[in-house]
Design goal:
This protein is α+β, with helices and mostly antiparallel strands. Helix content is 60%, strand content 7%. It has 15 helices and six strands. A four-stranded mixed β-sheet has the order 2-1-5-6, with helices on both faces. A two-stranded antiparallel ribbon has the order 3-4. Strand 5 (189-192) and strand 6 form a beta hairpin. Helix 8 (169-181) packs across helix 10, helix 10 packs parallel to helix 12 and helix 12 (258-270) packs antiparallel against helix 13 (274-287).
């Protein structure tokens, strides 16, 4: 049984949540639980080169990003003070506090590569080392050399070289999209058997969550169906480019599938790739003219391209075929 921790390694509650999960797992009876880390970004606008955090937080946008990883209704100073007390109580050390504003994407790539190299156990060891370096040792985990050293200390000796070669970029980008499609909205979020628990909850609540989730037997969908479902969710969330990225492998392998082509057409339309949307929809209608929604979307696409006369027949036909589309 596998529990996913969707978290940002620059979020202090992620480190606290991991400690509380460890305590809950010690009391958990039943099937062994495997822990894996999945990426989340609390500060996606962080610069590529890290900057001192005490200077960065003078920017209100940065302060908001930092507060997104803590309880609502608190100031940054209150949040930091509370986190320091809780971290000490959780055995994370009395000396606590990050010193750098970091773009954590590189660290997330390292964690993804560690899982590929040695499985969840190695990944968790690297995550622990990265978290401790950031929050206790005040090291810059955005620095590739620092990450390489931390990976080696955790037993992932070639982590630095694989990272330098660009490893993990696509995987992390895709997992960020998956998290968004699945509704992950805070760091940390624990996911097990289709259930989720948001925030670094007390270990007793995590233990209850583990027990309840372990009793579930959710239906497992094929990977292709999951990918299609997530891409559709991203279109609905107004992220059509993200949807197209998830659809890429499916379009390469199953490009003739009608449902897949129609979803791709929606994503093209909503990302203003009107030429691609039009060609895809015209192909769909040529293959089968009885799809009211395809006519509607083609008509709307043609109208946006300024071809109102060409759009009219498709819009009228869609309304006749399905009055709800009128």
């Amino acid at each position: 049984m596998r529990i996913e921790i969707w978290a940002d390694v620059v979020c202090p509650w992620a480190y606290i949540g991991r400690r509380r999960l460890e305590r809950a797992l010690r009391n958990h009876e039943g099937e062994k639980v495997e822990v894996v880390w999945r990426p989340y970004l609390i500060d996606p606008a962080a610069p590529a080169v890290s900057e001192p955090l005490d200077e960065a937080v003078r920017d209100p946008f940065v302060e908001d990003a930092m507060l997104s990883c803590g309880p609502a209704g608190t100031t940054l100073e209150e949040n930091w003070a509370r986190v320091s007390e809780i971290a000490a109580a959780e055995g994370l050390g009395d000396r606590w506090g990050a010193a750098w504003r970091v773009d954590s994407r590189r660290a997330h790539r390292l964690l993804a590569l560690a899982e590929e190299e040695g499985g969840p156990a190695l990944q968790d060891a690297v995550a622990e080392r990265v978290l401790r370096a950031h929050f206790v040792e005040e090291r810059d985990i955005g620095d590739p050399e620092v990450l390489a050293a931390l990976a080696a200390e955790a037993g992932f000796g070639r982590g630095g070289s694989v990272l330098a070669d660009g490893g993990g970029e696509r995987l992390v980008r895709e997992r960020l999209l998956v998290g968004k499609a699945e509704g992950v909205a805070t760091s940390p979020t624990f996911v097990l058997n289709g259930m989720s628990l948001a925030g670094a909850q007390p270990s007793e609540l995590i233990e209850e969550f583990l027990g309840e989730a372990a009793r579930r037997s959710p239906r497992r969908l094929p990977e292709e169906v999951e990918r299609l479902r997530r891409a559709e969710a991203l279109v609905d969330l107004r992220d059509p480019l993200g949807a197209l990225e998830l659809l890429g492998p499916l379009l390469e392998e199953h490009g003739s599938d009608r449902a897949l082509r129609l979803l791709a057409a929606r994503a093209y339309y909503h990302s203003a790739q009107l030429g691609r949307a039009r060609r895809t929809l015209e192909g769909l209608i040529a293959d089968g003219a009885d799809d009211a929604y395809a006519h509607l979307l083609l008509g709307t696409t043609l109208r946006r391209q300024g071809e109102k006369e060409a759009a009219g027949p498709h819009l009228r036909l869609a309304a006749v075929m399905d009055p709800s589309l009128a």
